[in-house]
Amino acid sequence: MSQRQTGAYALIDSLVRHGVEHIFGYPGGAILPIYDELYRAESRGDVQHILVRHEQGASHAADGYARATGKVGVCFATSGPGATNLVTGIATAHMDSIPMVAITGQVARAAIGTDAFQETDIFGITLPVVKNSYVVREAKDMARIVAEAFHLASTGRPGPVLIDVPKDVGLEEFDYVPVAPGNIRLNGYKPTVKGNLRQINAALELIEEAKKPLMYVGGGAIAANAHQEIKQLAEKFQLPVTTTLMGLGAFDEHHPLSVSMLGMHGTAYANFAVSECDLLFAIGSRFDDRVTGKLDEFAARAKVIHIDIDPAEVGKNRTPEVPIVGDVKEVLVSLLRRANELQLPQNSAKTQAWLKKIEQWKIDHPLVVPHPEGKLSPQEVIVEVGTQAPQAYYTTDVGQHQMWAAQFLKNGPRRWISSAGLGTMGFGLPAAMGAKVALGEEEVICISGDASFQMNPQELGTLAQYGINVKTIIINNGWQGMVRQWQQNFFGERYSSSNMEVGMPNFELLAQAYGLKGIVIRDRAELSSKIAEMLAHQGPVLVDAHVTRDENCYPMIKPGQSNANMFGVEPKKSSPQSNSQDSGTINCGSCHAPNPINQNFCGECGAKL
């Protein structure tokens, strides 16, 4: 039954009907009709709005909310600069396939195209970085558009959807008829969910034949909540499992079959394994450049099975022998069912020699936590945090600290929240804010760097206003750390605009200025007690951990090289991907670590060779 309501009412009511409990946003002129209706909804207890200090913070908070829960995150911004401030967050969600609905105010319909005050074509600006977008031209379309937006954002390959609402549409009255969630039909949009049985049979044949298989698991497995099926498959056929940065948490890294993360800063044993495997079982991953290194040498001896819900990803960078389009969880359920129907035995006999070889690589090339005399290493800080808060949800910013966190934190599904595809500095704090709002009593910790943190420090104000109990740890080395590392290794130690010491704030006093607790850690003796103090405090905390300035993040795949060719790792002479010129080593004059003869800087300590 219809009732006379405004477009703004239809929007807020539709959001509530779709289960939205929290909205992250910042008001402004063009979106005021929506905020006026939001005021009434908040008064009724229907929804809570979290006032951020910058619209980019709203988009990242909605993103973190979505990653932590699997639900659609929602953010608001006004027209013009408010809308454009969302773009980085929308692009971040797009690259990592995160379900989000971004709602922007727009100038009145009659003013569109006249260069009116705070008018921007946000529909056009965001076209390359959204799954779909709308400009609401009639208030009567609002409920349908919201229903479509949520359906598109959360089904198939998830992603962000934009709804742009002209100011007068929010004020326009009409006979409102709600649209129930899921009660829509979109012509031409029907994602393939079930895997093709013939392809599933072909995949099982390759698994049965393989002697050196490797499961390569990406963010699609997280989106599909397929961690249980991945574990069952790995254990049934004794398949070692490596994950991408986005796939962390899809498989228990304490499990003996885990080889942890692969790629540019992945473990040596994961990169060696992918270089020698004879079957690469890609699950919800997209063969991106940070994983593959030199693409034509990536898993060069392997046949490939590739499962992904997005047909555009299957075969985009690597042509698989067995492509399977479908939802990762659904396909793996079918694959396991079919394996049981065929009474396929556990593949332990065929893969035992392979697993022993991988185990030896783990012994020979472990991840190392440095303990420099009189100083504190960044890895020590991250390991201590992970030890004291093993079940926390972790967000990160981007850079060296992100890679160290990926290497040393062992997370469960959805407990690792990081900007992978776009690599967005400033993501960590607002994403943690969104995750904490969603999760309530769960511990949420942001691992940041001194450069990344300064991208969005204003969100400390949001933490203060709402008492959002996020713990943030700044790995402070006074640099844009990853930029410095590249300048050292590849640009002749010309440190152009990467030193952050001059102008750096006192982070402890900054926290106090917002009414929050600040803690400083300067040496190893106080590390454990200060982390415990941080975790025990009932409220937001900002920790400034001063670490060694020149620590580099290794292993690191050399740009343009195969995964077997890494800084910080002695070349594996048996690797078919190793170039003959790299087969010799030279000992570093400073730390005596072996290095490839054609390397300019020591992979262990960074000294010139």
Structure, explained:
The protein is an alpha/beta fold. It folds into three domains: 3-176, Rossmann fold (3-Layer(aba) Sandwich); 197-364, TPP-binding domain (Rossmann fold), CATH 3.40.50.1220; 378-546, Rossmann fold (3-Layer(aba) Sandwich), CATH 3.40.50.970. It is built from 23 helices and 24 strands. The strands form six sheets. The protein has a six-stranded parallel β-sheet with strand order 3-2-4-5-7-6, with helices on both faces. Helix 11 runs parallel beside helix 14. The radius of gyration is 25 Å and the shape is globular. The termini are far apart. The model is unreliable at 573-583 (pLDDT under 50).
Outline the secondary-structure elements:
Blueprint: E1 3-6, H1 7-17, E2 22-25, H2 32-44, E3 48-51, H3 55-69, E4 73-77, H4 81-84, H5 87-95, E5 100-106, H6 122-125, E6 132-135, H7 142-154, E7 160-166, H8 167-171, E8 173-176, H9 197-209, E9 213-217, H10 219-223, H11 227-237, E10 241-243, E11 258-261, H12 268-276, E12 279-283, H13 289-292, E13 303-308, E14 322-325, H14 328-341, H15 348-364, H16 378-388, E15 393-396, H17 400-408, E16 416-417, H18 428-439, E17 444-449, H19 450-453, H20 460-466, E18 470-476, H21 481-490, H22 507-513, E19 517-521, H23 527-536, E20 541-546, E21 556-557, E22 566-567, E23 585-587, E24 594-596
Parallel strand pairs: 2-3, 2-4, 4-5, 5-7, 6-7, 9-10, 9-12, 10-11, 12-13, 13-14, 15-16, 15-17, 17-18, 18-20, 19-20
Antiparallel strand pairs: 1-8, 21-22, 23-24
Helix pairs in contact: 1-2, 1-7, 3-5, 3-18, 9-14, 11-14, 12-15, 16-17, 16-23
